[in-house]
Design a protein that fits this description.
This protein is an alpha+beta fold. Helices cover about 50% and strands about 15% of the residues. The structure holds adenosine-5'-triphosphate and magnesium ion (MG). Keywords: Actin-binding, ATP-binding, Motor protein, Myosin, Nucleotide-binding.
């Protein structure tokens, strides 16, 4: 009997732990670790700051304030405090009521926007692998959860959230510092209605690391999409796009690194495809996107040899497939890779002459073409994500 009572009490306690009241600021048994806000440190020295962060980190607290600035330490493991319960807890609460959290910062920003009718901006900065991209996703996830809205708003939210896997597939890569390093700058703008519902968005990208398309350092990979396509493509796609194993392609085999721990390229590929779907890229265009990706890979396998100081395509057979995938004539491709047009003006006359390239110049031209194609493809995807957000009507365009 006594046992049963104990059991019952335990159950009740668990239930009350799950409720909002128990964990709101009235609860006084939240464990303290160091100081929540470093303006409270008795001494502001680098040692004291690092010591406080370390202490908190050891106790699994990754967030600490310095006034209104939030510091976040990468835990490299899933923390338990990113659930619905926390979303509930931080909504409408003041900063001092709960332990420091990215949700608190986001909520504060969201409320300020609604109350003051003023644009808000979060700046996330830190070294590679610090957790900026993950933090940005938590912010978007939180806003998506707390802002209401009907079907159309849900659609905008879906696009905002789905633009992440899509742009990461094409813009992120494994580096020695981060297995999912963002290799482009992103400025994401979400527009809200007066009621606080997201009704549009705009994404600008800048500085995509184009050199990665044609060359990677040791232990690094090209952009994820290449490995996703090679792992996840259907039998039919393999056939149509001439897909082989990654070590077959010059643009992938230079670093001899193909797999990333904890990444499943195959399932990420289906996520990329469904993201394209949600964003509103029609299936035939999706196919073209993949065709371009494969075309760039095949383009990279065109090599050149020396022929009397001029470059000659080593194996003409290798021209046909990339030309087909890129929708261009293979003769023209060969011509463009091994020569360039030069316009000369003499008096009122202008003359155009073909200058033949040497091997080095030809390889450089091939790589420039690959980089140009890839970066335009990336721009297209960024634009498509933005257009999806604004429902393609342009009315919700840039808020500037
Ligand atoms: N809050 C977190 N919880 C759990 N893991 C995290 C968290 N933040 C980051 N990580 C881990 O660290 C990795 C790197 O983080 P992230 O990609 O956000 O870095 P970044 O600052 O965007 O780096 P880069 O400048 O290279 O893009 C993530 O893939 C994830 O595994
Ligand atoms: Mg990043």
């Amino acid at each position: 009997m006594g046992k049963e009572v104990k059991h019952d009490q335990k159950l009740r306690m668990e239930m009350s732990q799950g409720s909002k009241e128990r964990f709101h600021w009235q609860s006084h048994n939240v464990k303290q670790s160091g100081v929540d806000d470093m303006v409270l440190l008795p001494q502001i020295t680098e040692d004291a700051i690092v010591g406080n962060l370390r202490k908190r980190f050891m106790d699994d607290y990754i967030f600490t304030y310095i006034g209104s600035v939030l510091i976040s330490v990468n835990p490299f493991k899933q923390m338990p405090y990113f659930t619905e319960r926390e979303i509930d807890l931080y909504q409408g609460a003041a900063q001092y009521e709960n332990p420091p959290h990215i949700y608190a910062l986001t909520d504060n920003m969201y409320r300020n926007m609604l109350i003051d009718c003023e644009n808000q901006c979060v700046i996330i900065s830190g070294e590679s692998g610090a957790g900026k991209t993950v933090a940005a996703k938590y912010i978007m996830g939180y806003i998506s959860k707390v802002s209401g809205g009907g079907e159309k708003v849900q659609h905008v939210k879906d696009i905002i959230l789905q633009s992440n896997p899509l742009l990461e597939a094409f813009g992120n890569a494994k580096t020695v510092r981060n297995n999912n390093s963002s290799r482009f700058g992103k400025y994401f703008e979400i527009q809200f209605s007066r009621g606080g519902e997201p009704d549009g968005g705009k994404i600008s990208n800048f500085l995509l690391e184009k050199s990665r398309v044609v060359m990677q350092n040791e232990n690094e990979r090209n952009f994820h999409i290449y490995y996703q396509l090679l792992e996840g493509a259907s039998q039919e796609q393999r056939q149509n796009l001439g897909l082989m194993t990654p070590d077959y392609y010059y643009y992938l085999n230079q670093s001899d690194t193909y797999k990333v721990d904890g990444t499943d390229d195959r399932s990420d590929f289906s996520e990329t495809l469904s993201a394209m779907q949600v964003i509103g890229i029609p299936p035939n265009i999706q196919q073209l996107v993949l065709q371009l990706v494969a075309g760039i890979l095949h383009l990279g396998n065109i090599s050149f040899c020396e022929d009397g100081n001029y470059a000659r395509v080593e194996s003409v057979d290798l021209l046909a497939f990339p030309a087909y995938l890129l929708g261009i004539d293979s003769g023209r491709l060969q011509e463009k890779l091994t020569s360039r047009k030069m316009d000369s003006r003499w008096g009122g006359r202008s003359e155009s002459i073909d200058v033949t390239l040497n091997v080095e110049q030809a390889a450089y031209t091939r790589d420039a073409l690959a980089k140009g194609l890839y970066s335009r493809l990336f721009d297209f995807l960024v634009e498509a994500s933005g257009a999806g957000c604004s429902g393609g009507q342009g009315g919700l365009g840039p808020a500037n």
